[in-house]
């Protein structure tokens, strides 16, 4: 369906310019400004909730992009591949926890996550806390020293093991999709509350998803 061309013309000028208009215009536009301010003041609490939610959007976008980069990874028996996979995994789990913990009240509680995804959620939290944020003895990574004495000297060897998901765990995709939908649902809830509070329609800028999101939805 194509949209009909609009014959409306919009002119935008700063509030400070009102005083230069004819008196009758000043009264008209000043009333519009005052009415708008009154609506915003009345909806202040709702707008604060919306602002807290919007702060989580960049983190959600980062999480989706990292998963887009990580998920198609194919195993290669090289050290460079292992470090690359580990780097993307670290980016994913730390970004995930940043989204979950939120800030300014924008986090996601464990009980908000579907019951069938809570185990993988817990695994990510533990992976972040014990492997990537701290050397906390996560079961996926270990190292040990081997010491041998020969010909009057000690020779030190190091054994190092690192476990990983190739391209991330399979359940991560469902978790990312759930969180993305949750953020959209929360946004729509806030817009509906603003409409109920003010009696005006509220819209949020939107457009087609980036290719790296659209591809993952297929």
Task: Describe the 3D structure.
With 218 residues, the protein is mainly α. It has a domain at 43-135 and 171-217. The protein contains 7 helices and 2 strands, in the order H-H-H-H-H-E-E-H-H. It has helices at 23-42, 44-54, 57-70, 79-101, 118-132, 171-198, 211-214, and strands at 141-150, 153-162. Strands 1-2 form a two-stranded antiparallel sheet. A hairpin with a 2-residue loop joins strand 1 and strand 2 (153-162). The radius of gyration is 27 Å and the shape is elongated. The two termini are 24 Å apart. The model has no long low-confidence stretch (mean pLDDT 82).
Alpha carbon gap, first and last residue? 24 Å
Morphology call: elongated
Proportion in helices: 40-55%
Q: Roughly how many Å is the radius of gyration?
A: 27 Å
Number of DSSP E strands:
2
Average pLDDT for all residues = 82
So how many helices?
7
Secondary-structure content class: mainly alpha
Approximately what portion of the residues adopt beta-strand conformation?
5-15%
Q: What is the chain-wise order of helices and strands?
A: HHHHHEEHH
Low-confidence stretches: none
Q: Numbering strands along the chain, what is their spatial order in the largest sheet? A: 1-2
Biggest β-sheet: count, sense, barrel? 2 strands, antiparallel
């Amino acid at each position: 369906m194509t949209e009909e061309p609009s014959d409306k013309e919009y002119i935008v000028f700063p509030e400070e310019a009102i005083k230069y208009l004819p008196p009758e215009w000043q009264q008209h536009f000043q009333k519009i400004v005052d009415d708008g301010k009154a609506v915003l003041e009345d909806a202040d609490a709702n707008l604060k909730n919306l602002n807290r939610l919007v702060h989580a959007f960049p983190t959600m976008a980062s999480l989706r992009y990292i998963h887009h980069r990580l998920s198609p990874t194919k195993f290669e028996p090289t050290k460079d591949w292992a470090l690359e996979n580990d780097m993307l995994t670290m980016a994913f789990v730390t970004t995930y926890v940043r989204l979950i913990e939120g800030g300014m009240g924008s986090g996601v509680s464990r009980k908000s996550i579907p019951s069938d995804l809570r185990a993988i959620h817990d695994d990510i939290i533990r992976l972040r806390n014990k492997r990537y944020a701290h050397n906390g003895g996560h079961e996926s990574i270990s190292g040990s020293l081997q010491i041998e004495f020969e010909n009057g000297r000690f020779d030190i060897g190091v054994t190092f093991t690192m476990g990983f998901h190739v391209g991330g765990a399979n359940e991560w995709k469902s978790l990312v999709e759930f969180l993305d939908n949750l953020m959209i649902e929360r946004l729509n809830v806030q817009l509906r509350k603003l409409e109920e509070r003010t009696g005006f329609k509220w819209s949020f800028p939107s457009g087609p998803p980036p290719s790296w999101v659209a591809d993952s939805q297929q």
